[in-house]
């Protein structure tokens, strides 16, 4: 007979925090039963109210820190506890990097069963603030007033924010100006419940190295009231803006962008660079939000690829071709594959933009294209993979091991699925030599990494 959980919903308990969850929660134990507690840190003793009880774990609300972590600090943002954007502002940045390091080590040991892999210290930022080049701001009305900011943690209630410490000051000031214009011109705000109103979100994208700025109004319909007044005032107040666009999304959905973009003024794209490579960025383009750390990440991938100019490289899940193009100057030929049609078109255009001719991009699922290439006898010296959070499909991994590249460079945004896939590769002829974590999102629980696998002879 299975034992009942030792806690009940609403119960107040005290427990020690022994671990760090992937979503930034502290992991405690009560009579051996796991409890996940937001805001708690490893090593702390806390008082908790149990909010949810499942068969194998519970969740709790932090009521009081009884014994604090020595590196616990006061969050700089007044919205830290209500906004879902950051999870780790309450610990020093040096200690945050150690927690992320531990997260990578734990996943590789628990899921991948690795005990002797070299895991380098996380590469962090010199200044872990104001790093985002993209921000998506939901608009709403609250008691008759326009509010704009971010969703409250676990809800679709908009938190009205004056500033955000991980986006830059220019984006903050532009958001304030747009909010004032919306109030002044009485532009109707979209209501999720009634599906009425016009303005849903404002998307801001910035070329950090080119100093170009794009403003996108996401609307529930084609017409924006006082459109020309909005454009005129934004141009007057922020001459740095080079593109003003409208994205039309009339669907009842949580997906922010619709399919149709309409250029209101300026250029259809902005540009930015990673190293020497220039990229054209549209409202829909996938482009890393932290350009400083993206260069760190790609340099690590290039180092692990160890290219001499004679290699054939396959870049799976290539997106807009950013890694493909970054490696092309050191490779004989690069083949990229991607499932999103718009991303493949962006990749091809970016290759033309940079006058890079030794790259080829193909549209389709990686788990279908690579087996096809393998059956056709394609050879690759280096395979680069940068999959979504769910990791690689088994069919893809199977084809990868049959092609037998000398090196596999795995870029991951999820240590858990990386560990799972690393275990598969290690059981099919590859040795995980080392892992380099990179902090792409300071103040959050997310950590990315680059792993190097070599073919065992």
Protein described:
By secondary structure, the chain is of the alpha/beta class. The chain has three domains: 59 residues, OB fold (Dihydrolipoamide Acetyltransferase, E2P); 195 residues, 3-Layer(aba) Sandwich (Rossmann fold); 141 residues, OB fold (Dihydrolipoamide Acetyltransferase, E2P) (Beta Barrel). Helix content is 24%, strand content 32%. It has nine helices and 22 strands. The strands form four sheets. An eight-stranded mixed sheet has the order 6-21-22-20-19-16-17-18, sandwiched between helices. It has a seven-stranded mixed sheet with strand order 9-8-7-10-11-12-13. A hairpin with a 4-residue loop joins strand 1 and strand 2. The N and C termini lie far apart (50 Å). The model has no long low-confidence stretch (mean pLDDT 95). It comes from Shimazuella alba. GO terms for molecular function: 4 iron, 4 sulfur cluster binding; rRNA (uridine-C5-)-methyltransferase activity. Belongs to the class I-like SAM-binding methyltransferase superfamily. RNA M5U methyltransferase family. This is 23S rRNA (Uracil(1939)-C(5))-methyltransferase RlmD. It holds the Pfam family TRAM.
């Amino acid at each position: 007979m299975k034992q009942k959980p030792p806690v009940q919903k609403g119960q107040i308990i005290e427990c020690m925090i022994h671990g760090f969850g992937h979503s930034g929660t502290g992991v405690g134990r009560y009579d051996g039963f796991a409890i996940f507690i937001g805001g708690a840190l490893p090593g702390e003793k806390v008082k908790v109210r149990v909010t949810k009880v499942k068969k194998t774990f519970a969740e709790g609300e932090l009521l009081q820190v009884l014994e604090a972590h020595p590196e616990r600090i006061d969050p700089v943002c007044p919205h830290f506890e209500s906004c879902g954007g950051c999870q780790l502002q309450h610990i020093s940045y040096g200690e945050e990097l150690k927690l992320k390091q531990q997260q990578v080590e734990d996943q590789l040991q628990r899921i991948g069963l690795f005990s002797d892999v070299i895991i380098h210290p996380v590469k962090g930022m010199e200044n872990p603030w104001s790093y985002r080049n993209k921000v998506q701001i939901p608009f709403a009305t609250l008691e008759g007033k326009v509010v704009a900011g971010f969703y409250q943690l676990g809800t679709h209630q908009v938190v009205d924010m004056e500033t955000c410490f991980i986006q830059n000051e220019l984006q903050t000031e532009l958001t304030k100006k747009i909010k004032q214009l919306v109030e002044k011109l009485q532009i109707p705000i979209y209501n999720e419940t009634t599906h009425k109103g016009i303005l849903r979100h404002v998307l801001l994208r910035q070329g950090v190295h080119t100093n170009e700025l794009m403003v996108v109004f996401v609307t529930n319909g084609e017409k924006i009231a006082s459109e020309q007044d909005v454009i005129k005032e934004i141009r007057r107040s922020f001459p740095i803006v080079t593109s003003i666009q409208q994205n039309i999304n009339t669907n009842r959905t949580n997906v922010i962008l619709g399919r149709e973009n309409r250029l209101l003024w300026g250029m259809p794209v902005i540009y930015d660079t990673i190293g020497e490579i220039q990229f054209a960025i549209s409202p829909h383009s996938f482009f890393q939000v932290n350009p400083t750390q993206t260069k760190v990440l790609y340099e690590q991938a290039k180092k692990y690829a160890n290219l001499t100019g004679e290699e054939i490289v396959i870049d799976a899940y290539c997106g807009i071709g950013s890694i493909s193009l970054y490696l092309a100057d050191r490779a004989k030929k690069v083949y990229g594959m991607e499932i999103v049609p718009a991303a493949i078109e962006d990749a091809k255009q970016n290759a033309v933009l940079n006058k890079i001719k030794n790259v080829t991009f193909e549209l389709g699922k990686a788990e279908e294209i690579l087996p096809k290439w393998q059956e056709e006898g394609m050879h690759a010296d280096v395979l680069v993979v940068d999959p979504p959070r769910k990791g690689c499909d088994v069919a893809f991994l199977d084809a990868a091991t049959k092609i037998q590249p000398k090196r596999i460079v795995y870029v991951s945004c999820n240590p858990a699925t990386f560990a799972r896939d690393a275990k598969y590769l290690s059981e099919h002829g590859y040795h995980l030599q080392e892992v380099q974590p990179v902090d792409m999102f300071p103040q959050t629980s997310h950590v990315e990494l680059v792993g190097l696998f070599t073919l065992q002879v």
